[in-house]
């Protein structure tokens, strides 16, 4: 029988600050848990979806409650008994990890995914004034990151992107509006951004107001983030977006994320595998799913002041498993 062994909240400082349209973060709290079959121990981590009202403390409480229930602690049963979110993600990850350790079979084989290899990952340029973003982009480019993800807020965004283009003239660019473009003329904005070399726009409008995109002319594809958490959301966003950002904390674990990826691709949507601020433990399952994605945004550990020991390597703009 599998049981819950440990659950706790852990605190990690951010290198500098992480700024988006909703505010700045200088640290992140994650929920950590362990499950055991009596011989082996599996570990998992989740980062609360703060814009959904989650906190690390509430996630820890949800995991403890699930651990006390007289039900089998399996990935399949979690889908029936827990809502999507960081708590389920942490438990789901721990159960995958436990199976890896108990069977000696790599995660990629258990999940039916390709054998993992290093991947080009986006590097996030936090929202700031144009000059600061230009400097930050130049630093990232100098570190070898070929793909940059810019956090914007609907104000002076063209100036910010133009400044970044000066700082990193050869970089590929992704824009994350974080729901802040409700009043932006999307036809004019996307046409201008395309000239600056932008290739994708994440979540231009608020979740729940996706219909505002219906019939809008855009020179660039839109990627659903806050608007798409689980596989059932695909029917609602397909036709309005051309891609989805799959985050395991939103989906509630790799088990659901696999369903989400398959459903999205069946509807002709491209996929990005992204993450919240997290340690390498938190993005470990996502790295395996990212082997099948069109874009990869797994820089969460690279944005921390210090990652867990034995974490992913970030070199030359790629993310790779430790040697």
UniProtKB/TrEMBL annotation:
InterPro entries: DgoD-like, Dipeptide_epimerase, Enolase-like_C_sf, Enolase-like_N, Enolase_C-like, Mandel_Rmase/mucon_lact_enz_CS, Mandelate_racemase_C, Mandelate_racemase_N_dom. Binds 1 Mg(2+) ion per subunit. Coiled coil: none annotated. PROSITE patterns: MR_MLE_2. Keywords: Isomerase, Magnesium, Metal-binding. SMART domains: MR_MLE. Residues 130-223 form the Mandelate racemase/muconate lactonizing enzyme C-terminal domain. It holds the Pfam family MR_MLE_N. Its cofactor is Mg(2+). The keyword Magnesium applies. Its EC number is 5.1.1.-. It comes from the Bacteria. The keyword Iron-sulfur does not apply. Belongs to the mandelate racemase/muconate lactonizing enzyme family. PANTHER family: D-GALACTONATE DEHYDRATASE-RELATED, ENOLASE SUPERFAMILY MEMBER DDB_G0284701. This is Dipeptide epimerase. It comes from Blastomonas fulva.
């Amino acid at each position: 029988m599998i049981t819950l062994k440990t659950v706790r909240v852990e605190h990690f400082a951010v290198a500098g600050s992480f700024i988006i349209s909703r505010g700045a973060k200088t640290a992140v709290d994650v929920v950590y848990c362990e499950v055991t079959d009596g011989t082996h121990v599996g570990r998992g981590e989740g980062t609360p979806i703060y814009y959904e009202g989650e906190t690390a403390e509430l996630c820890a409480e949800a995991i403890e409650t699930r651990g006390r229930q007289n039900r089998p602690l399996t990935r399949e049963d979690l889908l029936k008994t827990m809502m999507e979110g960081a708590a389920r993600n942490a438990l789901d990850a721990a159960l995958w990890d436990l199976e890896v350790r108990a069977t000696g079979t790599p995660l990629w084989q258990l999940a039916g995914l390709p054998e993992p290899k290093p991947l080009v990952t986006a590097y996030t340029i936090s929202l700031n004034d144009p000059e600061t973003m230009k400097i930050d982009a130049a630093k990232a480019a100098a570190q070898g990151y070929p793909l940059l993800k810019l956090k914007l807020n609907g104000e002076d965004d063209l100036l910010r992107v133009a400044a970044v283009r000066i700082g990193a003239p050869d970089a590929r660019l992704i824009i994350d509006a974080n729901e802040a473009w409700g009043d932006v003329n999307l036809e004019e904005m996307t046409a201008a951004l395309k000239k600056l070399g932008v290739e994708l726009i994440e979540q231009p409008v608020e979740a729940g107001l996706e219909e505002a995109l219906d019939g809008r002319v855009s020179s660039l594809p839109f990627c659903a983030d806050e608007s798409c958490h689980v596989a059932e959301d695909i029917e609602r966003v397909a036709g309005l977006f051309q891609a989805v950002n799959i985050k395991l904390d939103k989906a509630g674990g790799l088990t659901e994320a696999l369903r989400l990826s398959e459903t999205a691709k069946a509807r002709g949507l491209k996929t990005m595998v992204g993450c919240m601020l997290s340690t390498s433990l938190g993005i470990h399952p996502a790295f395996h799913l990212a082997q099948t994605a069109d874009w990869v945004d797994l820089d969460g550990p690279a944005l921390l002041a210090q990652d867990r020991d034995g974490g992913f390597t970030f070199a030359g703009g790629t993310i790779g498993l430790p040697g």
